[in-house]
Amino acid sequence: MSQGCVIKLVLLAIVLTISWDEGLATVSPIVMEQQLLWISGGDEVGAYRIPLLSYTPKGNLLAICEARKNGRSDEGPKFLAMRRSEDKGLSWQPQVFVLNNELPDGLNLGAVLVDNVTQTIFVFYQICSHYYKCDMAVQYYIKSVDDGISWSKPYNLSRQIGTRMFAPGPGYGVQKKYAPNIGRLIVCGHSTLPGDGMFCLLSDDHGDTWRYGGEIKGIPYNTKKVKGDFVPDECQPLELPDGSIMVNVRNQYQYHCHCRMIMMSYDGASTFKVDDLRFDTTLVDPAVAASILYHNGVLFFTNPESETSRIDLTLRWSYNNGTTWAGALNIWPKASGYSTMTAIPNSISDHKFIYILYERGEKTYSQYLALAKISLSGKL
Predict the structure, then answer these.
(1) Looking at residues 235-246, what average pLDDT do you find?
(2) Coil, helix or strand at residue 358
(3) Which residue among the candidates 172, 359, 365, 368 is catalytic per the annotation?
(4) What would the DSSP string read from start to end of 7-68?
(5) What is the pTM of this model?
(6) How many CB atoms are closer than 10 A to CB 73?
(7) 229 in active site
(8) Is 358 considered catalytic here?
(9) Is 74 marked active-site?
């Protein structure tokens, strides 16, 4: 790593440490506003699904999703759709189809990751995730160096990591700000159901090269699963201020409970130990992609708060890293599915808000992708 990159990382860590030290003692979240960013059934799109949301290096917002041409199915041809906001989510630029994939088992998202040192945004996706009319999964990423305005051609990451099916997220990746492994990029995901588990990709050179790091495999591994088996699936990592990595994981076949798995790493996601795995029975879950976010000294979590149905999207918050949960706020009481969160860092004025992009509907969760802006101060 160059001396310039080291200096940038140190300065970034100082800024973020100051931000957390000035964090809110308590929060009183309320829904400040909601808007529909995507409505299924138009523009050659049958359904919009799999929301990704991120801040950008210049303090803007970037929303990303799959635009599924033929309907709700995971298989089939898709566009990769994006929208940007340059006014903290008040208004959004028209959608742009960054990629147009016509394959029978087209692209599936994925994760978005911001390298705050190089000011590069990565978006990860995969082809042939479900082996539908194809037999080799391939991992790709595209990147932007101009705040998400333009994007590179796809890079075939499977040249480095192989062709084991790896489905990032869906959600966001992490750049470590604290020791150990300051500056490391981390993307976590899952694999096929028989060979499922939680797996992480790591890069220590700002995304030039990637390798597999820590993992916890399903049991029995590479075997057809049944209800009650241990099957970690879609997941979201984050870094806590002590430098540890927490991963909140979908409990696909409800091993132990209808709730979320929590996995921890203390070496920059290089390893995960079963001894550090727990189940959070407060976070009841119908087996879905959920989201966590550590912002301003508070841990936030979103999912449909139900053991069996994708309804009642709920925001929870904790002051002790999820040991206990201090409160809950219903975001949408009807059909709701996948969700993701972000906040705009390094700005005191933006610390009072978080943003949730989620699947929402009146009858089915694939009708809309909606953005909720949450005021943490309890004031509109």
Answers:
(1) 98
(2) strand
(3) 359
(4) HHHHHHHHHHHHHHHT--SS---EEEEEEEEEESS-TT-SEEEEEEEEE-TTS-EEEEEEEE
(5) 0.93
(6) 12
(7) no
(8) no
(9) yes
